[in-house]
Description:
By secondary structure, this protein is α+β, with helices and mostly antiparallel strands.
Amino acid sequence: xxAHPGATQHQGSSKPGYVVAPWSLHWRGLDVDELARTESTFxxxxxxxxMRGNLEEGEPRGxxxxxxNGFFESRPIPYxxxxxxxxxxxxxxxxxxDGKIIRLLVDDEPVDLRYGSTTAHERVLDxxxxxxxxxxxxxxxxxxxxxxxxxxxxxxxxxxxxAIRYEVQPLDEPLQLVVQSDLLANEPLxxxxxxxxxxxxxxxxxxxxxxxxxxxxxxxxxxxxxxxHTARSGLRMAxxxxxxxxxxxxxxxxxxxxxxxxxxxxxxxVPKGGKLQLTKYLAYGWSSQRSVPAxxxxxxxxxxxxxxxxxxxxxxxxxxxxxxFWDSADVELDGDDELQQAVRFALFHILQAGARGETRPIxxxxxxxxxxxxxxxxxxxxxxxxxxxxxxxxxxxxxxxWRYSILDKARGRAQLLGQSGAxxxxxxxxxxxxxxxxxxxTAAFHINADVANAVSRxxxxxxxxxxxxxxxxxxxxxxARLWVSLGHHDPHGGFRIDxxxxxxxxxxxxxxxxxxxxxxxxxxxxxxxxxxxxSDVAVQLEVNDVEIARWRKAAEKMVVPYDEVLGVHPQxxxxxxxxxxxxxxxxxxxxxxxxxxxxxxxxxKQVVKQADLVLAMHLRGDAxxxxxxxxxxxxxxxxxxxxxxxSVCTQSVMAAEVGDLTLAYxxxxxxxxxxxxxxxxxxxxxxxxxxxxxxxxxxxxGFGGMRDTxxxxxxxxxxxxxxxxxxxxxxxxxxxxxxxxxxxEATYRLLSxxxxxxxxxxxxxxxxxxxxxxxxxxxxxxxxxxxxxxGCAPVARNRRTGDDATGxxxxxxxxxxxxx
Length: 820
Ligand code: BGC
């Protein structure tokens, strides 16, 4: 049981952990040093509005955070040595007006958990109610005791709305309580993402100082509104609050607003056993076009709607929404209670990231932090959308519609680079390319094929012909056009795509990256069939038979390098001829390698940051024989360091396919616990949304063996030894299916919808409502010999249930200084 040797310093010494529970994330006790990471894991979001899990008092905190999807500030990207086509401006998500703050004074003493004593403190993120609950017993330095309880939600049903129910009870004696409920703009951050650190670690976000300029502030009664805009991106936002107050005795209130602060103050004498309760309703809105009065009206209206539903109404809507989600998406797992919790936590955060984004992107950190500046990458299409496509297809559609909405910018980018069609940005918020490091950004053309792949998958899995017609064909066409202009037919008859960067960012600007070429090949084929399917759209896009024939020819002749001597696929041409990396001589503290070695050295050696060829074997499994998959796995495993959290789930899926279920399980554990165990020591800078999606992928595509080839859904389930049973649900073309797996057999059930044709271990089956089908599981193929680089083997996981699984854990961190 090893990880990178440096990780061993964590072995045995356990970080405080979460209490294991099947339907919630639960933290007991106060540990101020752990606040930053739990603010990310306890974040609430609906994909439009996100709030870190900060304490209501505002302080202590790791980093405050409230985000509106798509709301960003632009900033110049300074280059000492620029170049043609380099993006000139960056974009960074803004910490918008903070409405979570409810400060409390107890007999003149501000409640601040760093002072006095906290005798009980508990927080629970409930996956079924969609709320974050908190309960704290606090004794002031002068001995006054109070109990503070709160519950808050970011509404899935009313996307502009958040609400907080906050209660204070004096425990021993009557007390005077003063509550200040704020809207606070331009909050100081002191996060660890300032400019100097960013120079060292480009993956952090830029710390924007005072990004909001006041437009309007007003307060009246129990409510207030603040409107601001950003200076450079010219976006405008409004935040409004209203309150309902309950106390047995007289209250005195006052309300006040200034440029960056609005405050409702409530003073009350509360007897022992009595309580002061307030319900705070919040509404947020932003726009690039709407005026101050229009935005103000928008948030006022959202607040009116929220108050009309009332606290109980919002709670009930939230619960009903989640009930529907779990009904189509739950994953059950018997034999490891902590993993059960982790998988539901993962699905809950995926839902939070995508549910109500509505034509906005899904950022790599969701709406939990400004990490990666709030940008969206291929993480969305390749990792998150496969989960949403089968669990919440409308959210997958929305995210793809965002891609469609930036198609004009993508066309412009392709044109600027002298290419046809469209080139999607490697990282962005609003569609403009923001990657300043061009070998990893601009050259990562595979983003186009990733988008196309997500479009084809969505259309095949849902049968959404409207989307296909209105958006899909155009997305497939414009992405396909890029490949034809980027690649060329060589004198030997092959179609080559040279000078690209594949998923593995430790190898850049290479020829014929197998992943890129195979994904482009599929993109070209799918574009051709889509244009034939919808000739009216093809005509509008000026696609003719000659162009379709060109796509088909490029696809047919696509070069896929193969090393005949070694009997493996080089991930790109000549890769297998490069020098080996000295793993034995690489100390653990020099991981992740990108922070400790020059790129030129990484680029010329056989060291793989993240699954690349192995990802090709997952997503284009039809292009490899099983024997090739086994040999390729045996070749790439000892060279892959997993310096990106996107890698491990793919390694899990492919380890399962080639027959190493133990390794697949250990990798599954790693992806599922990435954030809960803070394995990369950076969850304070946001959750890893692709790694969370990876937990589902490892279960369903890995152990379940699920593949979807053009709508032909096949399963090849197997049970890892560590589990006694697992089950998952999914949506396929409007029908809901449940698959349950034990060691000997798998049962397929149609929960609702039309009968479906599926495949179980190569055998076609038909499932109908009320007639579950149970089939036996054939023995796994012989377990291949798979090794990892020195110090990089995953931690071996044993079966963990019951008492044994509760409390903190001893998973070592993968690295000491954080990676993504
Ligand atoms: C990975 C990329 C990924 C990005 C955002 C990087 O470390 O190499 O593949 O898109 O993180 O998650």
